[in-house]
Amino acid sequence: MSRFRMWKRIAREENNPDAMSTAYERVHDAAAEKRTPRVGGLIILAGLAATTLFLVFMQTIAPHTLAGSFDFTSRNQTLIPIAVLIVMGLMGFGSDLLQIFARAKAWTHGYPRLLFMGMMLTFVLFGSYWFYIKLGVDSVLVPTLGIISLGWLFVPFFVIVAYAVFSSGVIDGIDGLAGGVMMIIYAAYGIIAFNQGQYDLSAYCFAVTGSILPFLWFNIPPARVYMGEVGMLALTSSLTFVAFLTDQVLLLPIIAFPLFITALSSFLQIISKRYFRTKLFLIAPLHHHFEALGWSRERIVMKYWVCSVFFALAGVVLSML
Fold first, then answer.
1. Residue 8 lies in a domain
2. Distance of alpha carbon 140 from alpha carbon 93, whole angstroms
3. Of 29, 107, 169, 258, which has the fewest CB atoms closer than 10 Å, so is most exposed?
4. For residue 172, which of 259, 58, 278 has the smallest C-alpha distance?
5. Does 11 fall in a domain?
6. Which residues pair with residue 224 across a beta bridge?
C-alpha cells in the first residue's frame, strides 16, 4: 500500500468546517494523513475471505475433518452478512480509490453526496426488503419485555438503524480506535449468537474479530495504515445485519455504545453550530474533543477499548434475560 502511495491526496481539513480552529490543528496532522495508506480495511476483508474459502474448500473435500467441520457458510445465517460485507467493502474501496487517485474536484472526497446517498438507500431498502418480505420479519425483541410487532413500520425502523450504524463510521479517526472497538462489538455478538444456537453466525462474528487483529497490528499508534471506507463501510453494514439476524438489534446501542456516542457527538455539534451558532465540543467527534483537551491518543484509545468491553459485556448479559 505504501509502495503504491495509496493515501489521500487532499487532507480532511480542506473539507471540514472546523479546519481553521486551533483545536483542529492540534488533533490533525495533515502531512501524516497524506502519507499514510487509507485502504487498510482490505487486510480485514482479505483475512476473512481467505478463512472462509479455506473452510469451504475443506468442507468440500474433507467434510469429516476438524477443518471441514468449522465451515460457517450457511444460507439462513451467514450468506447475507458475508455478501453485505463484500459488496459494501467494494463500494467503500471505490470511494477510497477516488480519494487517492481522482483529479476532478467533484470526486476528490469520494462519491458525490447524492450518488453516495442513493447507493446507501439502495442498500438499506434491500436489507429491509430481505427481512420483511423474504424472511417475514416484522417484529423486534425487547429485552425483558418480549417480542413487539411493528408491521410495515419494520421497514423504516431498519432504515433508521442502518443509517445510524453507518454514521458511526466517524469513529475511525485515531490510530487503533475503530479496529479495537469493532473487534469487541463483533465478539459480543458472536457470544450472543452462540448462546442462541446460531453457531454459523457466531463463527462468522468471531472470524471477523480475528480478521481485524492483523489490521490492528499495523494500525496501532503510530499507524502505518488507516482502515478507510473499505473497512468501516463493510464492518458497519454487516453489523446491521448481524444485529437483526440475532434479533438483538435493540441491544445495539448498548453493545456498540462507543460507536453511537461518537456519531451522536458529531450530530449534536452540527445542530448546535447550525441553529445556535455555538459548539458543544472543542471539535467533533467525541474522541477528537478529548484529544483537543490534551489527552494522548494512546490514552483515548485505551479508555475507549475499556468502555467497549464494559458495554459489550452488559449487552451480552441483557441478551440472556
1. no
2. 33
3. 29
4. 259
5. no
6. none
